[in-house]
Specification:
The chain has about 120 residues and is mostly helical. Helices cover about 40% and strands about 0% of the residues. The chain is flat and about 60 Å long.
């Protein structure tokens, strides 16, 4: 099949992407998803407003996974702010290390218990 020209008109339908189904797309003021840009005293209230939108979003899990995968540095993604995502990522890393140690321990050869 021939490749479409890069100069072709943009009339082809774009494939569905999870962002297209996000609740934040319908928000008039998307700046609430970046509360760090507001005065410090307003950040908790703005973040809470953004998280409320996230809670009714059908793609919240996918959004969070995407933000974690690319280490999103700011904003509210998947219902979590940057500090909450950082803490979640640390917990996931600790859990993976702990599970890896458990598996290494279970595969270790049994110690010889002979009396000699």
């Amino acid at each position: 099949m021939p490749r479409p020209s890069r100069h072709a008109p943009d009339t082809l339908a774009r494939p569905f992407h999870w962002v297209d189904g996000a609740a934040c797309r319908a928000e008039e003021d998307t700046s609430i998803f970046f509360p760090e840009d507001f005065p410090r005293s307003e950040v908790p209230l703005i973040a809470m407003t953004a998280k409320a939108v996230c809670q009714r979003c059908p793609v919240i899990k996918t959004c969070l996974d995407a933000a974690l995968a690319r280490s999103e540095p700011s904003g509210v993604w998947g219902g979590l702010d940057k500090d909450e995502r950082r803490a979640l990522k640390r917990r996931q890393q600790r859990r993976r290390r702990r599970n890896a140690r458990k598996q290494e321990g279970s595969h270790a050869p049994a110690a010889a218990t002979g009396t000699g």
